[in-house]
Records
---
Amino acid sequence: MAVMNFPDPFITCCFVDDETIFVNLYHNHLMKHFHFYYNIDTNKLVGKVIDFSLGVESSKKNFPYKCFYNDEREEVYSFYRQGHALTINVHDESKYTIQKITDQDLG
């Protein structure tokens, strides 16, 4: 386990189509978020890996809690334990927004 007493995953993913999955993770020692798209048929990345810090409001006990794909808006929503919410464009992984939706820990 990356953080003691937290059985939750530090990597979450969701399908965006039959062969592509969205993957996001939090490297708790660097306190950085990473996300990318991966094609399971070709076993290759689609696009590039995006990484950034979640800022001073994040800690080493943060991690992505759940992610969902919205096929109408073609966006992925990722929610973090410490209240961050990300919206990521399916066609351009570098187009994303970050919001802090709560000051309370989720889960």
---
Amino acid sequence: MATQRIDVTKTGDVSVVRFRDRKILDEGAIQELGAELFALVELDNRKTILQDFEGVEVLSSAALGKLITFDRKVKTAQGRLKMCGVSPGILEVFQVTKLNKVFDIRADAAEALAAF
């Protein structure tokens, strides 16, 4: 199998996803990332997910597309998705693209976990 792009831990009922890559730019890596994220919902039936972006510096537009698709998959499965640890640069991209209105973005993991 290809390199794993995410680490998943459990905190109570919440699956916490941490990204291994600091820069999510490479098309192949983005496809792998998408497959791993989608499998959480489609194969593992996880419905309460926190994406922790701590350490992620850059996302490509293709990576944004995967995040949007993942958000839809979670919502279709009647799940809940929150994000935290988003760097100021990535947050700015979310604001410019209005994705900050789509995604539930919290300052840190403690705040996000409490919001579930």
---
Amino acid sequence: MALPSRLLAVFLMLAPLPASAQQVAFAGLRADTAAAVEVSADSLTVNQADGTAVFTGNVVISQGDMRLKAATVEVEYGADRTKIARLHAAGGVMLASATEAAEAREAVYEVTSGQLVMTGDVLMTQGENVMSGQKLAVDLKTGTGQMDGRVRTILQPGAN
């Protein structure tokens, strides 16, 4: 007996993935990489010798519509020490836009290129759809990415 095409589509969406990586479109996880980066935290330690700063306690980083929250964030400045080159967030990391959110243990954000890599028990939500894995790499300029490491996806029929 043949399955109706809609039922077959739902079955295929819920079936386990044969590979451990999945390409994903993140329409809501886009950042204006030219926008200013604003950081707030309970404390800040600056090391002039190596060009780093460490924000600790309730760290919130904003760039355009994107928000990154974590327990600690290490900021690495570029060679001229005037622009942020890289952020390394650890401890309950959460990245959110108006329509999507992701959680992980750690995240590294290359500010200029817009590349974000989240690792450790990654959980991504897009509306009612949920995806989990061990590593999420997103190009915040294009909104494209890839989830790796025993990927599990739950797609709601009719959801975006």
---
Amino acid sequence: LPKGAKLAVLQGDPSKPGPFVIRLKMPAGYKAAPHWHSQTENLTVISGTFMVGMGEKIDKKAMKPFHAGDFGSVPAKQPHYAVAQSPTVIQIHGEGPFDMNYVNDADDPTKAK
């Protein structure tokens, strides 16, 4: 993940096959560039407002807000992106291994720049 977020594993090991639960705390303005996962991603907003859009390019007009208590599910291999509109905490659960595959390699924080 890009710098600025804090991640905690609550259950399982997201890097291995099997169920997992993680929490992600993000500051206002935190962005997740267009990416996709090999498995379905399920998320619940614990606090804050999380803006989510589908597709390979960020389109702010197409983003939908998710507020505390809202649940969403993104199918495997569906490109999507997100922005924390305010300080936000989300919980992600699913079947591992959990991965992030960026649509644009330049957005991948694990690649040397």
